[in-house]
Design goal:
Blueprint lengths: L4 H14 L2 H11 L5 E4 L6 H10 L2 E6 L2 H11 L5 E6 L2 H12 L3 E5 L7 H10 L5 E15 L5 H12 L13 H9 L4 E7 L2 E4 L3 H18 L4 H12 L3 E13 L2
Helix pairs in contact: 5-6, 6-8, 7-9, 9-10
Bound molecules: S-adenosylmethionine.
S-adenosylmethionine binds next to α3, α5 and β4.
Protein name: Class I SAM-dependent methyltransferase
Keywords: Methyltransferase, Transferase
GO molecular function: methyltransferase activity
Length: 258
């Protein structure tokens, strides 16, 4: 599954506003005064770097399967003292290896774990070193409110949720269940875990993002065959014209107990 620079640019302002600021404060307090090594999994062009590095500092390694996104990250930030390296990898193949090589103090990611399967999330939890923090932001939680409410919304949204659970390269995706699943895996002897809501709250001024979301969800629902062509067209038109949209996300933070 690939993600364009345009799409990542379009969503970044909404992502940035949505991140749970209390979890970021907790993470930066934990890291304060230390030259932390940060490993960003599925970094794209560096959205998490831009959100966190100003407060966190550190030495960042950005990783992705998409070389164009990594090149864009280097183009934007390659000269910054906090920007250490990019690594082209496949997180399905290379997860444990990159963690062993970088020996991060913090592993982070955004809009990633909802793409992953329970098997991969088990691997991530198993590979997290005892003293390393994990911050995974902006996992889709499955709750959407489009206003005014489009016709056929219940049937269409159920079909969309089914699509969220299809394979995105990591095996059957956990989709909206990912953050809670990973939180339960991590909470225990070695780490304390917090979840925070990070919804996108969009109004008519973000027409381009609303239109792109409406188009993306229409493509997914069309594949399901849950609506007739006429119903699909009606639903899609109402979504594209919505003047207020709330898309639920969850942020997860796990900090070492010692
Ligand atoms: C939704 S995008 C989020 C990008 C970035 N974290 C952000 O918030 O803008 C998911 C990212 O995961 C990357 N990705 C997907 N599958 C991957 C894999 N198997 N290995 C490494 N990166 C992967 C994609 O290329 C993409 O950059």
């Amino acid at each position: 599954m690939s993600f364009s620079i345009d799409w990542l640019n379009l969503r970044e302002p909404a992502d940035s506003r949505a991140r749970d600021s209390a979890l970021i404060a907790r993470l930066t307090d934990w890291a304060a005064g230390r030259p932390v090594r940060v490993l960003d999994l599925g970094s794209g062009t560096g959205s998490s770097y831009r959100a966190l590095a100003p407060a966190l500092g550190g030495h960042w390694t950005l990783t992705d399967i998409d070389t164009a996104l990594l090149a864009e990250a280097r183009h934007r930030h390659g000269d910054a003292p906090t920007f250490a390296a990019t690594r082209h990898l496949d997180l399905v193949r290379d997860l444990e290896a990159v963690i062993s090589e970088v020996r991060p103090d913090i592993i982070c990611g955004s809009a990633l774990i909802d793409l992953a399967s329970s098997t991969w999330l088990d691997r991530l939890a198993g590979a997290l070193p005892r003293g390393t923090a994990l911050y995974m932001a902006l996992s889709y939680d499955g709750v959407e409110v489009w206003t005014p409410n489009p016709p056929h919304e219940g049937v269409a949204h159920a079909a969309f949720l089914d699509h969220q659970r299809t394979d995105k390269g990591f095996g059957p995706a956990m989709g909206p269940d990912a953050a809670r699943y990973l939180a339960e895996k991590l909470a225990g002897e070695t780490h304390r875990v917090w979840l925070g809501d990070s919804p996108w709250i969009l109004d008519g001024t973000e027409r381009d993002l609303i239109s792109a979301l409406a188009a993306g969800s229409t493509e997914a629902v069309a594949q399901s065959g849950a609506l007739t062509d006429a119903q699909l067209g009606d639903w899609a038109a109402h979504r594209a014209a919505a003047d207020h949209v709330r898309i639920g996300h969850t942020d997860l933070l796990a900090l070492p107990r010692d």
